[in-house]
Structure formats: C-alpha cells, structure tokens
Design a protein that fits this description.
Length: about 375
C-alpha cells in the first residue's frame, strides 16, 4: 500500500540521517573528548566566514568534520601498481554497507499511529485510517540473528581490502582483522544468549517491550539489571569487533602503517574510517536496545508511564513518540561517548594478548554466565 511505502521511506531517511549525522558528529567528539582528557584544546581551527564580513563561525571545531569530508572527496584517488581492481573497489562498500543495514532491525520507537499525529490535517488522517506502524524499518522476528548476519559481513570487506592491495602490510592487517573479528563475534553471540533465555525471543521489538516492566517491584527490567555481567562482556566484545583502541591491531599504525587499508586514499579510505564511526553509533544503539530498555525510560510504555505501586501517567501519543525518539538518541550518544572514553584511556594490546584475552578470558566467562543464567531460570521455573 502507498501508506506503508510512505511511512517506511520516512523511516529509512530518518535512519540514514541519524547514522550519517552521528558518524560525522563523532569525528568531532573523538577529537574534543580526547583533547579534554589530555588537557588540550582540540579541534578549533576550521571555520566558516559569513559573506562580506570578518565574522568567523568556529563553533568549538564543529566544522572540522566538514573539512575532513571535503578533503577526502577532493584528494587524488591513488591506486597501487599491482592490485585486483574489482576486489579493491568493492571492499570499502562491503565494510560500509552492512553497518547501515544492521540499524534496519533496531526499533527506535514504539507504535506510531499516523492518524493521531495528523489530526490537524483531516485528509491525511483519513488517508492513513486506523493503520499503526512500529518505529522500525524491518520488523523481523529474527532481528537479533539479522544483526549478527550483517555484522559478520564486514570481515569479508576487511579481508578483501588486504588481499587485493598486493601489500604485505595490508595482508597482515587483513589476517589480523579476520581472526580478531571471528573471535570476538563468538563472544558477542554468547553474551546475548543469556538475554534470549530470559526474554524467550530474538525479536528486538519484543526484547525492548519486555524491558518496560519491573523486577523486585521497583527496578526497571532492563537487560543491564538482569544481565549486568553480560552487558560488560558485550560492550567489550563489540568494541573489539569495531577494531577500536585498545583492540585496533588490524590498523596498528606503529606496526602496519594503516593495516588493511594502507593502499587506500581519498574517499575509499574515508569509507573505512566513516564506517568505524558509524559502527560506534550502531553498537550504542544495540547496547541500548538489549541492555538499557531501548527507546523507553524506566517504567515507560507506549501509553505513558506505569510507576511502582501501579500509578498510571497517561501521555498524548505525539508526546510519547517524541519522548521515545529523543530517549533513544540520548542513550546512543551517551554510549558512543563511553566508547570514545575507553579509546582514550587504555593502551593498545599486543596481538597475542588480544586473542588470548578473547579465548582464554572472555570466552570462559561467557560460558559461565550462560550456565548460571540457565540454571537460575530452571530453579526459578521449578519454584513457581
């Protein structure tokens, strides 16, 4: 139906705008937050001059992201002398595209009733009728499985980039990326199995809705409350998946020049770098969805709030939708800032330490968490 197409086109434009906007903004946050932590000024040189005046809009360095984008677009697209042209050209897109696709199954709000929002425009309200839409691009029952399916594709792009460049440093970076991403993706999968056992579904929408309740009568039923250990393991493995410091061994500049994208320049290199910042936002969105109640505040649902004790606070539909959208964006920004905080706090691991940390430390902890969760659920089920 045309109504469905119109709504989902708006969703797609919104998702792309959020991810591209946050990816650009996080390049500035990375600089300024790192500067604050290092007692430096940080990005403050790029500016826009108002026409016919001497007024320069610096805006605490916000224009540096625009300057970087223009520089990458205008730089020479250098290609190595000996390389596989097709694999070399497609590799950046194989890394970049799945990062955007993952967000398609992430719910960024509850139910949307267009007719209620458009009550001031009776013709449009009548056109939508009684239709209701989840604020999610692709409402799939297997949403969590789709996340891991798309997320696993990025390793193919990294391997293609290193192999096709005909450069020993690029190839070594690709081998590091492949082994690292496979190792930590297994850890990520095991950490969320505890949540799957508790909520009984891999549908991200149902997982968020289940977190709108309470436990022990007053605590929000967020994944962070029910699985705090898994939350720590998940964010650690996710940052390693994104190859961020202290897990940036595939791109270790002091060892491998720039890792698997050493032979890339201009916007092809920009796609690799931009994908990394967008993935920061996607990891933040997934963590918020799985462990922080998603788009809901504590005790919040699609109709308003249900406080401990049973007190109901009803809110208008438009207010609830706006509150859910803003809440989800704020959670994403806070989690993105936390990832950058870790990036500027910890030193880079050695490669043997990186893999040992995954297989000999995180992997046994994930298994232990899963066993404890299964036993606890079995005991609680037997007590009922």
């Amino acid at each position: 139906m045309m109504q469905d197409l119109a709504v989902h086109l708006v969703y797609i434009l919104y998702a792309i705008s959020v991810l591209m906007g946050m990816g650009t903004l996080l390049t500035w946050v990375e600089r300024k937050q790192g500067a604050v932590m290092s007692d430096r000024i940080g990005a403050n040189r790029a500016y826009i001059r108002l026409p016919f005046t001497q007024i320069r809009l610096v805006w605490i360095g916000l224009f540096h992201g625009i300057a970087d984008g223009l520089k990458l677009l205008l730089k020479e697209d250098f290609r190595p002398a000996a390389y596989d042209a097709f694999a070399y050209a497609i590799a950046p897109w194989v890394v970049f595209t799945p990062v955007l696709l993952v967000f398609a199954v992430v719910p960024f709000g509850g139910a949307l009733h267009p007719a209620e929002l458009l009550s001031a425009a009776p013709a449009l309200a009548a056109w939508f009728g009684e239709r209701s839409y989840a604020l999610q691009i692709a409402q799939l029952d297997a949403g969590l499985l789709i996340v891991f399916a798309f997320g696993g594709l990025t390793v193919i792009g990294a391997m293609l980039a290193g192999w096709s460049s005909s450069n020993k440093f690029s190839m070594l970076g690709a081998l590091r990326a492949g082994s690292q991403m496979i190792s930590y993706e297994l850890v990520m999968g095991l950490t969320v199995l505890g949540l799957v056992l508790i909520y009984g579904t891999v549908d991200l929408t149902q997982i968020v809705q289940a977190q709108s309740g309470v436990v022990l009568g007053f605590l929000p039923a967020w994944g962070l409350v029910l699985q705090p250990f898994a939350a720590v393991l998940f964010v650690t493995a996710a940052m390693a998946e994104n190859r961020r410091t202290p897990f940036d061994l595939p791109e270790a500049e002091s060892e491998l020049i720039a890792g698997y994208f050493t032979e890339y320049s201009a916007m092809k290199m920009g796609l690799f770098m931009f994908a990394e910042f967008i993935e920061i936002a996607v990891i933040a969105a997934l963590f918020s969805t799985l462990f922080l109640g998603g788009y809901n505040l504590p005790y919040m649902h699609d109709g308003g709030f249900t406080l401990p004790g049973g007190r109901e606070i009803a809110l208008a539909h438009g207010t609830v939708v706006l509150l859910q959208l803003v809440t989800f964006l704020v959670k994403m920004m806070l989690m993105s800032s936390f990832q950058i905080l870790v990036r500027w706090s910890l030193p880079r691991l050695r490669y043997d330490q990186l893999l040992r940390f995954a297989w000999k430390f995180l992997f046994p902890l994930c298994l232990a968490n899963l066993v404890v969760t299964a036993v606890a659920l079995w005991l609680l089920g037997g007590m009922k």
